[in-house]
Amino acid sequence: MRFTRARTIAALLIAAGFVSDLAASEIRQAERRSGFSFMTPDTKAIQNDDTSNPGMLWVLDGEALWKNNANVTGKSCADCHNEASASMKGVAARYPAFDQALGRPVDLEQRINLCRVRHQQATPLPYESRDLLALTAYVAKQSRGVVIEAGGDPQLQPFVAKGHDLFMHRQGQLNLGCANCHDDNWDKHLAGSAITQGHPTGYPLYRLEWQSLGSLQRRMRNCMIGARAAAYDYGAPELVELELYLMSRARGMPIETPAVRP
Amino acid sequence: MPSALINVPAKAKRGEIIEIKTLMSHIMETGYRRTATGEIIPRDIVTSFSCRYNGVEIFRMDLFPAIAANPFISFFIVAAESGKFEFDWIGDRGFSETASAFITVE
């Protein structure tokens, strides 16, 4: 008797959408907020002034690397792409993008490394190395203010869907999916820190906690380790698909690179 | 690739109080951390910063291991005359960087 009643109540709760798993819903367009809006005025001030934003140190290094032709071919990035301010404007807003030769999406770091290997006969730069972060930051900074439009390519649809599945999928000893925090609880705090909606508008970005610039993959791996899950390796297709989903989820928001976050 | 970002107003009125902001690219390794195998990572910090205004030292500070990477230093001065600001950073392992900026005082 009791058991039946409990089952009826459970069924009613499910029907009413009270069970959090089923309530997981996407953030409405009008409610979307950049991580910037969750920060204190002091941290916002660091990002807003290019002479106090430490991310600009990597942008400066990236500018030097853009013009560096010390490789077998003697060609620098600038020799093919000319002025980055014109040729790279809006590029970061479209990445990850589909690579025909590989048949899968690649992110901006991977695109830079593919360009190095295919056109400069140079070795790929290691993930999170200063040079790769600097070049990525320099390229992405050219898109500052440009609205994100990643994931529109029809060839990307299956990969966006895979990224979405990973976003919803519970993992790790804490059994948390990305959506449990960043869709359902973004207006709350975790150990005093704002949870935020997880829109990747400013990568690579300077985290005060890292005391360095870091990529979106580093950030996602941090989150996975936080949920006590085994993090995917840098460059893993799963991470790129998740990047792609996050960027398509942030479509319409402006790029802030290099952003500053606590 | 050490690099610095300097923010000095290009123009100021005589007697005006202006803010000078500097940001130096540096890892500021404390010397207290250890590697996974237990060896100490040697200290590598900026130890001293100074600013000269037309050759006269107007600001100096010592830096210590508790200061975060990429030290941001800002201070205020009275704009007395047109001229040149010279900045010097000195640190461990022979670290030595300079930068300069100009101001027109009317």
Compute the CA-based radius of gyration of chain A: 20 Å
Strand elements of chain A, count = 7
How does the helix and strand content of chain A classify structurally?
mainly alpha
* Helicity of chain B, as a percent range: under 10%
Q: Would you count the extended β strands of chain B for me?
A: 8
Distance between the termini of chain A: 54 Å
Portion of residues within helices of chain A: 40-55%
Summarize the helix and strand pattern of chain B as letters.
EEEEEEEE
- Mean pLDDT across all amino acids of chain A: 91
Strand content of chain B: over 45%
How many helices of chain A in DSSP terms? 12
Write down the oligomeric state.
heterodimer
Q: What are the segments of chain A in which pLDDT stays under 50 over at least 5 consecutive residues?
A: 12-23
Mean pLDDT of chain B: 95
Strand count, sense and closure of the main sheet of chain A?
Answer: 3 strands, mixed
Largest interface: A-B, 15 and 15 residues
Strand content of chain A: 5-15%
If you had to describe this structure to a student in words, what would you say it looks like?
The complex is a heterodimer of chains A (262) and B (106). With 262 residues, chain A is mainly α. Helix content of chain A is 43%, strand content 7%. Chain A contains 12 helices and 7 strands. A 3-stranded mixed β-sheet of chain A has the order 6-5-7. In chain A, helix 4 (55-66) packs across helix 8, helix 7 (108-119) packs across helix 8 (130-141) and helix 9 packs across helix 12. The model of chain A is unreliable at 12-23 (pLDDT under 50). Chain B is mainly beta. Chain B has no helices and 8 strands. Chain B has strands at 4-7, 11-12, 17-24, 46-53, 56-62, 72-78, 83-91, 96-105. In chain B, the strands form 2 sheets. Chain B has a 5-stranded mixed β-sheet with strand order 2-8-7-4-5, with no helix packed on it. A 3-stranded antiparallel β-sheet of chain B has the order 1-3-6, with no helix packed on it. The mean pLDDT of chain B is 95. Classes of the chains: A mainly alpha (262), B mainly beta (106). Chains A and B meet through helix 4 of A and strand 1 of B.
